[in-house]
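Thread: Newbie trying to understand structure tokens

Hi all, I'm a second-year student working on a class project, and my supervisor (Dr. K.) asked me to get a predicted structure for one chain before our next meeting. I've only ever worked with sequences, so writing a 3D structure as a token string is new to me. If someone could post the tokens and maybe explain what I'm looking at, I'd be very grateful. Here's the chain:
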Amino acid sequence: MLIILLVFIQFYPTKLIFLPVTLRVILSAMGMSLLVYRYVKDAVLGKPLWIDRRFLMILPTLVLFTVFSAIALSYNGTRDPMYLYYFSTSFLMLSSGYLTVNVMSYFYREKLSFEIIAYYCILAVVCQLLFGLVSYLNKPLVLPLLLKTDEGLLQLRSTDTGRFIGLGQYFMNLGVANGFGLLLIGILLKNAVQYGITVRLKSLLTFFFVLIAVLGNMQARTTTICALIVLAYLIFSTVRFNFQSLCAGLGQIIITAFLLIGLLGFVVYYWGDQLSKYNDAINYGFELFMSAENGKGASTHSSDLLKWMLTIWPTSDKTWFIGDGWYFTENGGYYMRTDVGYARLIFYFGIFGMMVFFIYQIIVTLISFRGITTKWKSIWFYVYLTILIINIKSCVDYTFYVSLFFSYNILYSKRDSVQRSQYKIATASLQK
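---
Reply by user tm_fold:
Sure, no problem. This is what the structure looks like when written as tokens:
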């Protein structure tokens, strides 16, 4: 229960109204304190101090974040420090994952592995979805909790009543977390043999995939985009196209989907009148498909707004190269009224700053997923593809979500490399 709570806070920061900072910042401070304590302890005991070279790989990009931000702010005379202090912010994001992984290690010892961390991440996403479902079906039941969080108050004031409310996070960020959960499920299903996943567990993971893809869409429609990317990973991620395994994997998802649809049909048939008041959530989640069915084309209110935002780009060379030094307006709105991730980064600190942002994401995701399976490169490709695509809709930093795996890979990569070698030897023996 403690681990699920920590992972939940890692994904959904949760700002309680009586605290000055989010719960994730508190975890970050605890993680940083733990790291400092261990270094001081080793120094007192005369042990050699070490810093993993992979950790040092991210430092140049973090320095460049500060440099490009400082140039944009000083040249334009603005005061928006969105990425000026990203050097320290990134360490806080990674240190919260460091704390959580160490807590996991305390309980699991040598048994801690990538798949165990992935299971907890998936459970955290499912718990968020169930909370969203309960909040929609019976809002008074969770209202006291929502009123104690800043995110809950914001969503309660929103005029967009058709979507599920989230705890500790809201709007598109819920879709990003849902997508990351779907990606982890895809990784586990694709590498079920290596991870020793049983048929029952595969069925449960498939059920979770469909559940997140359906209910998650009622929180944020970004979930659909991520689900399509994961399906592409399941189909195209191997060089050797194994038609039999492809049919088996997709068949399991299709069968589960039909069972859920059958169950939904049964519920609608017998309790259709009572369910009519939930049409708003259904209409919101599946607006894309309903618009296509009604002959209006595959579009939503969000996609129409995005089309307009994609026309907003810098009009001066100065903005393209240096930026305007604004991420938010002084009133807290989106600068230039655009939420397109690429545009917001360019408007803030120019195209070179934007490039540093995505180079940083490359390094962090590479360190996080390197070596987790024998075919980790295809996993990293689809992770980064997800980042590139969802940043069209809004500026998304994946550090929050991969920090658990970043810390795990640095702390336990040597042990895992032995396990992977053993797996390769066992596989080669079976092939002979």
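A couple of things are worth pointing out once you decode it. Confidence is low (pLDDT under 50) at residues 415-432. The first helix runs from residue 2 to 11. Feel free to ask follow-ups in this thread.
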